[in-house]
Every structure is written in structure tokens, then in C-alpha cells.
Amino acid sequence: MLRSSFATLSLVLLASLGSVLAADYHGVKVIAHRGAGYEFDENTVEGCRYSYEHGILGYEVDVRLTKDGHLVLMHDADVSRTTNGAGKVEQMTLAEIQKLKTQNHQVPVPTVEDLFRYFHDKPDVYLMLEMKTTDKAAYPDEAVEPYCQKLYEAASHMLPPGTFCFISFDHRALAAIHRIAPEAFTGYLSSKAPTEEMIAEAKQLGCGRMSVPIQTTTRQMARKIKDAGLQLSLWPIREKEDADLAVLWGASIICSDTPSSLLAKPSPTP
Predict the structure, then answer these.
(1) Average pLDDT, the chain
(2) Phi, psi of 97 (to 5 degrees)
(3) What is the Cα–Cα distance from 120 to 60, expressed in whole angstroms?
(4) Strand pairing partners for 212?
(5) How far apart are CA 13 and CA 140, in angstroms?
(6) Core vs surface per residue 60-91: b (16+ CB within 10 A) or e
(7) Is 258 in contact with 236 (CB distance < 8 Å)?
(8) Core-most of 126, 163, 183, 245, by most CB within 10 Å?
(9) pLDDT, tens digit, for every residue of 12-66?
(10) How far apart are CA 267 and CA 232, in angstroms?
(11) Is the pTM of this model over 0.85?
(12) Residue 236 has pLDDT above 50, yes or no
């Protein structure tokens, strides 16, 4: 019911705006969520390659640490939803992870180095690296900073400056990145409706962006986020109407499962 009401409200608002929205998209980054997980296998190099070949220049991926200390791309703690295997990433070795294939296209689970190797000569691309460290059993306090150090070093050594950022729901990880590299761009993620206290917390952590739920964020709070000097990202973006509303409210990042649907299409020849 909430989703239906929100979609209806979006359409009513957008109907009054006419063609103004098209111009508003200039300067907005369109990001493939999980490497466009609805268009190819999520969090794979092949999926990112597919999206890149279809004109996508921004990618969000999820990073976890194997039992033997390797960074790999995987959203869930357990590999069973997306691969032909079972088990928790943090309890598996890289060799075990590398035996897996994704369920749909039977491609491998990549390391971050695999991903960075593909993108290192593509300076027009922007990567959002989500640090999946919220599980304190898998990532106790003393493990978070070494994880962040490893990820920062890999990204900064293999990618052009300014083409990547670090995002997380885990404030420990955001604080660790800020200690390791104060100049690194970080993004504060939340699944809750934003508050002024959360804005202050994001600023205190040194973040440059807040990503908050589109369904529970008000236009007034979106404005407060931007007035605080933070970039705004609203999620999830599953429909064109979501993206249009996010841009209307000042979002600079559109992170979508189907990013190709948001790219401008050429007008038909008369």
C-alpha cells in the first residue's frame, strides 16, 4: 500500500513539472546498483562490462573479506542466493570462492582487484565501494580498520584519483576510512528516515554524501541534507518516476537496479 501511494504521489508531482525534469538530469551520476543486478549477474566483472558497453559510467558494488584475507564482491553474507554454492563469505577461503559460479550466467565471483583491473584504464567511470562490515560477529571492532586499509590501498593503487568513493551503513568503517585517508570521499548510508541528528553524525564522520530511503524522506529533510553541505542520494530507484522525483529533490546520484532505463534515448527520426 505504501509503495502504491508513493508511486501515485510521485506521478502527481511530476505531472505538474512538464519538461523541466529533463534539464535537471545534467550533472547527475547514474549508478548501476550492484553492477546493475537486474540486467546481469550482480557484483560481477561481466555484469559491469555489460553495463559499460551499454553506456553506464557509474557502479556500486559490495565488498566482503574472505577467511584468508581477500576482498571479493558479494552482497549477501551467504553465497547461496547468487551462486551455485553455499556458505558464508567470511568463513570461506578465496580458493573456495573462486570455485563458485553465478546462477544465471555461470561467471566467477571476482576479487576487487579483478574489478579494478577492468576499470583502471577507464577514467570516465565512477565506482561506489560499499563496505559490508555491519555484522560485528564477522567484523569485530579490531577487524574493521585492517579491512578498510586493505580496500583503500587496492583502490588508490589501481584506480585513477577521483573515480571511486567508499560508502557504508557501518559508521565504524566510515570513521576508519576517514582516519586512514582524510581526503577520501565517503557516503553515509541509512535505511531509516533521515533526521537532523543523522545529518550531524554524517558530518562528524567526515562524509560528503547521505544516501537515504526515498519512501520515507521528506522534501524538507532532503533540503536540510543539501543545506548541510552534503550530497544527496535517494534509494531505492526502481522506476523512472523514482529517479525523476530524486532529481527534483536535488539528488546528485541515481543508483538503480536498471540504470539503462534511465539513460537518455535518441529521438526517433521523423
Answers:
(1) 91
(2) -60, -40
(3) 16
(4) 234
(5) 45
(6) bbbbbbbeeebbbbbbbbebeebbebeebbbe
(7) no
(8) 245
(9) 444 444 433 443 578 899 999 999 899 999 999 999 999 999 999 999 999 999 9
(10) 30
(11) yes
(12) yes
Helix (H, G, I), strand (E, B) or coil at 55: coil
Using omega within 30 degrees of 0 as the cis cutoff, is the peptide bond preceding 160 cis?
no
Per DSSP bridges, beta strands 126-131 and 164-168 are parallel
pLDDT tens column, 55-100: 999 999 999 999 999 999 999 999 999 999 999 999 999 999 999 9
**Non-local CB neighbours of 244 within 8 Å, separated by 6+ positions:** 10, 14, 21
| Domain harbouring 224, CATH code | 3.20.20.190
Q: What angle do CA 48, 174, 231 make, to 5 degrees?
A: 70
Angle 73-185-42 from CA coordinates, rounded to 5°: 20
Residue 101 forms part of a structural domain: no
SS3 of 129, please? strand
The C-alpha cell at 16 is 505538474
Residue 267 lies in a domain: no
Contacts of residue 136, defined as CB under 8 A and 6 or more positions apart, other chains included, come to none
Pairing of strands 71-73, 164-168: unpaired
Query: Could you give the number of structural domains in the chain?
Result: 1
Decide if 18 is inside a domain. Answer: no
Q: Is residue 29 part of a domain?
A: yes
CB 78 within 8 A of CB 88: yes
Range of the domain at 251: 24-76+111-261
